[in-house]
Every structure is written in structure tokens, then in C-alpha cells.
Amino acid sequence: MKILYFSFVELDVPNACQTHTLGVLRGFSQNGCQVDALVPRPIKIRPIIPDVKFYYMWPWRFSRFGEAWVKFLSFIIMFILCLIKRFNVIYVREMEANPTPRLCSKLFHIPLYIEINDLIVLVAGETGLPPGVVRKIQRNQALDFIQAKGLIVPSSPMCKWITDTYGLPQNKVHMVLNGTEIATGAAFDKNRARKKVGIPHDCFCLGFIGNIYNRYDFSTTFQAITKCHDALPHLHFVVIGDGPIRSELDREINKLGLENKIIFTGYIQQEEFGRILPAIDIGLLLLTEKDATRYGPVTTKLSTYAYYKLPVITAGFSLQGYPDELIRALYLIPPGDTKALADMIIWLYRHPEERYRNAKVLHEFVMHKLTWDAVVRNILEIMKTDSITTDGG
Question: pLDDT of 138-150, one tens digit each?
């Protein structure tokens, strides 16, 4: 299969956006596809993936001129590529208000698949953009969804919001959980990893990995740590990542007197995960109540935690619609419930056999169904089924 791929994320920042973009491209490569990938030009290291040819754009769009230039450049490059090559599919990671993939899909009669990673209309409305701009984004998204052959969406609540809001047929919206990269090289053992992180070898350790945004409920975690003090005086929390609210978290940590309990590593490359994550006993997937309702209890971090055989506490109201393995093995608490989180941490500390058993279930699920190879195989099967359905009638 020949695929024209488009994603506009900063490939130099080791976060979920980078991981997902490169993971999907590697998955296409591993499944025998030939890909022409249009992405922002990295400043540091340019990726090399077999059967993936990169076309780089100017990597800055955070201004009116920059955004217009990205849209113009992406149209020119995609249009020329579609003129000279025969693509079976256009696959894009969604970018707000960029009609280029839709227009190329229409002009050249190429099926369009859109990977949804956020509910950008809701987010745009909350970030102070003028109502006219929000309406423009929504109109553009509606036209994209009409043109698209299929939407790839990573959570059950997001699927429902999209189908309800835009009146789409359910068979057009496919829930496909995000994948993980298989690590190369041996991981550190627990003691060595804890020495590297700088926490006591005999502590009990919570962990978070990802961008430090308002949608993640750090306050509930901090307060739960204080509630656990009598039962777990040696409880620590390692935050792997960085983001815009880091300074706010530092102030809250100081106010609660948790400076010696919480460590921020900053961003680390995925190749370094094996030196850090073994230090952790429990991975946290805690969204705020609003965001847990919007995005559901399962995010990208699940596959990373599970790959390193960590049990996972997540916040949400239901696991309905998710695979049986996740329903069985995840520890679900109500969003924002400090007592429930503290009780769950203490219970898991006192039941190591339960932790290991469910961590093993998650690990096996990830290894069989959530590697990027497996995730992309699922996406390609969706494309194949859609093609057969179209050809058949």
C-alpha cells in the first residue's frame, strides 16, 4: 500500500505527539507499506525509517504568517506528490483548519483517513480563541469528516462525542488505542533505576509520564500522598516530563511540604525509559473530572506503563467499550477523589501479588495488541474492510 502521510508536530520534543507520529510511521513500514511523509523539519535528529520518505516543512506555525505558510506549503507539496504518484490512501494526524488533505482527497479521488488526537473544537473554545475562529475550526472539521473514509480515534467517549456532534455513521468512527514502541536494550533493575532517579531503594513509588498540562490531576495525587503519610511514610512520586504548569506544581508541592517526596526528571527520550520506569511501582493515568468525561480513562500512557509491567491506576466513570483485558486489569477510581486514590495506593502496596498479576495482564495485552506494528495492522485492516465494502456496493 502506498500512503501519503501528514502530521504537524514538533519531532524534537520527546512527548506523546512525537512518539505517536514516528510510531505510526514505523508501523506502516513494518506492515510493508511505502510512505511519503510530510512533517515539520526536525532541528536535532532526522528520523530514518525503511520505506518512509520524508518531506520537511518549515517547522514553525505559531503566528498568523507561520500558520498560513504551513497551509500553503503543505498544499503545494501534497498536490505535487499526488500528481506524480499513485497513492492508495491519505492518512493525516488532524490539524485544525487545514483543508489541504481534504482537497487532495477530493481532487485525486484518494480515500482519506484522519487520526483524531484531541477534541480540538472544545479545546479551541476553552483557550480564549474568538468565537468566529472556533466556528471556522468546527466548519473545517465537519467538512473533513464528511470527506474522510474513516476516523481513527483513541477513546470510547471521544468516538461518541464525534458521532453525536457531527451525526456521523458509527461505522465511520473507529476506536484504536494508541500503541507503544518496543524498547531496545536491557532495562535497569529496580535498585539501579532508583539510584539513577535519586529515590531510596526501599521506597514505594508512584509515577507519571507525559506532558504536564492542566488536564492531568496532579493536585489529587499530591493530596493523596499526604493522606498516605501514616501508612506509607516512604511513598515517593516521580514525574517524567515537563510542561506549562510545572511552576504551579512546584508552588503546590512546597505548600504541602512534599519537596522531598516528588521528583521531576524533565523530558526524556523514549530510548531512556528503560533506565527510569523500572524505578516505579504504580503508573498513574489521572485526568480531571472534565477531561476524564471527555477523553475516558485510557490514554497513551497506558501502553508505556504496561510495557514495563507496571500496574495502572486510572480515573474515570466507566471502562465500557474497552477491551476485556483493560476492564479486568486497570484500577479505576472516580476522578478527583483524593480518598479513593489514597485508599487504592495503600491497598496495592499491601497486595503485591495483585499488582504483579494485573501488571502481567496489561503487559501481555500491550505486547500482543498495542505495539505500533499491531496497532497499524488494525488500522490497515480497517482500510481493507472499507475498500471491500465500497467495491462491493
Answer: 999 999 999 999 9
H/E segment holding residue 140: helix 131-147
The b/e string for 157-179 (b: 16+ C-beta within 10 A; e otherwise) is bbbbbbbeebebeeebbbbbbbb
Amino acid at 260: N
The residue type of 335 is: P
User: Distances from the Cα of 272 to the Cαs of 48, 187, 188, 197, 308, in angstroms?
Assistant: 19, 9, 10, 12, 12
What pTM was computed for the model? 0.88
Q: Are strands 52-57 and 331-333 parallel, antiparallel or unpaired?
A: unpaired
| Best CA proximity match to 250, nearest among 235, 262, 237 | 262
**3 state DSSP class of 201:** coil
CA gap 355, 281 in Å, rounded: 9
Nearest to 277 by CA among 375, 376, 359, 154: 359
- In whole angstroms, give the CA distance from residue 341 to residue 25: 37
Helix, strand, or coil (residue 188): coil
Contacts of 311 (CB under 8 A, 6+ apart): 281, 282, 283, 329, 331, 348, 355, 356, 358, 359, 362
Q: How far is CA 89 from the centre of its chain?
A: 23
Burial of 193 (0-12, 13-18, 19+ CB in 10 A): buried
Q: Which residues contact 14 (CB under 8 A, 6 or more apart)?
A: 267, 268, 269, 270
CB 235 within 8 A of CB 204: yes
Choose among 277, 332, 333: nearest CA to 310.
277
Cell 506555525 maps to which residue?
61
Q: What is the pLDDT of residue 14?
A: 75
Residue 246 — pLDDT band, cuts 50, 70, 90?
very high
